[in-house]
Design goal:
This protein has 295 residues and is of the alpha/beta class. Helix 4 packs parallel to helix 6 and helix 6 runs parallel beside helix 7. The protein has a single domain, classed as Homocysteine-binding-like domain (TIM Barrel). The chain contains twelve helices and twelve strands. The radius of gyration is 17 Å and the shape is globular. The longest helix has 18 residues. The protein starts with a helix and ends with a helix.
Length: 295
């Protein structure tokens, strides 16, 4: 199946939810490498993917968010980037089967180009290895997500365009600005993001993390106004996090996220899923709403 063609048929589709919290519930300890679990605990990773598929997700991500060689160097695993990413894609591919799509997850490296943390060549090579392995493992698209800097995001897009045949999704994480509107930590607005990512060759753009559904409605409106014909993906948190008894809590229930799904669709989102704090039950509730729009 071709994701872009299928999206035109279905009009709106359901994506998956949070992976990190799920991994920690299964025993991943703080400071351990999540991507290594693709080799050491493949059935646990598969179970996460399968849970989201069973909940109604039509698109499932891969356990490869921190799978760039630059990020993996923190665990002395940089030389295993291709292995870990290919395994991540293969696990999600097995859960997705022939009827659901696999999105190869590519997160930021944590390096800032403008202050000399790394070079364009190092970033490109790190992303090149990762996206090729995700395609080899069975990904249907590359999703470059949780970005905040245009230079890093556009290098990742270029690496995916030049080294794979897959559609490219790119999402940024925005915060409410004191001046009004939303910006990333690097000062990028939704409108600036849209212009730069489309010029770089992204097929689908959007926002993930940082905000709940209510805030995402505003962000999607801004993106949609800047580029009315471009598909928009949203992976929202289960509400804006709060601290309760020293723990981070995401307050939005599955019913609350589902209730805001129509507003997100009306704003322009065509792929909707969850990020931090969301669970298979959140995705199940969202999927029930989305199916009504597919009829």
């Amino acid at each position: 199946m071709n994701l872009l063609a299928e999206l035109k048929k279905r009009h709106v589709m359901t994506s998956d939810g949070a992976w990190g919290t799920f991994l920690h519930q299964k025993g991943l300890l703080p400071g351990q490498c999540p991507e290594l679990w693709n080799i050491t605990h493949p059935e646990e990773v598969f179970d996460i993917a399968q849970n989201y598929i069973d909940a109604g997700a039509e698109l499932i991500e891969t356990n490869s968010f921190g799978g760039s060689s630059i990020k993996l160097a923190h665990y002395q695993l940089d030389q295993r980037s291709a292995e870990l990413n290919e395994a991540a894609a293969a696990i999600s591919r097995r859960a997705a089967g022939e009827n659901c799509f696999v999105l190869g997850s590519v997160g930021p490296t944590g390096k800032i180009l403008m202050i000399g943390d790394t070079t364009e060549e190092e970033l490109y090579d790190s992303f090149r290895i990762q996206v090729k392995a995700l395609e080899q493992g069975g990904a249907d698209a590359i999703i470059i997500e949780t970005m905040s800097a245009l230079d890093e995001a556009t290098i990742a897009i270029r690496a995916a365009k030049e080294n794979t045949l897959l559609p490219i999704i790119c999402t940024f994480t925005f915060d409410a600005s004191v001046q009004g509107g939303y910006r990333t930590m690097m000062g990028v607005s939704p409108e600036m993001m849209a212009e730069a990512l489309l010029a770089a060759g992204a097929d689908i753009i959007g926002a993930n993390c940082g905000n709940g559904m209510a805030q995402m409605v505003e962000i999607v409106r801004a993106i949609q106004q800047a580029t009315p014909s471009t598909p928009i993906l949203v992976h929202a948190n289960a509400g804006v996090p709060i601290i309760q008894e020293g723990k981070t809590v995401f307050p939005d229930t599955p019913e609350a996220m589902a209730a805001l799904t129509p507003a997100l669709i009306e704003a322009g989102a065509v792929i909707i899923g969850g990020c931090c704090g969301s669970t298979p039950e959140h995705i199940r509730a969202i999927a029930q709403i989305i199916r009504k729009y597919q009829q």
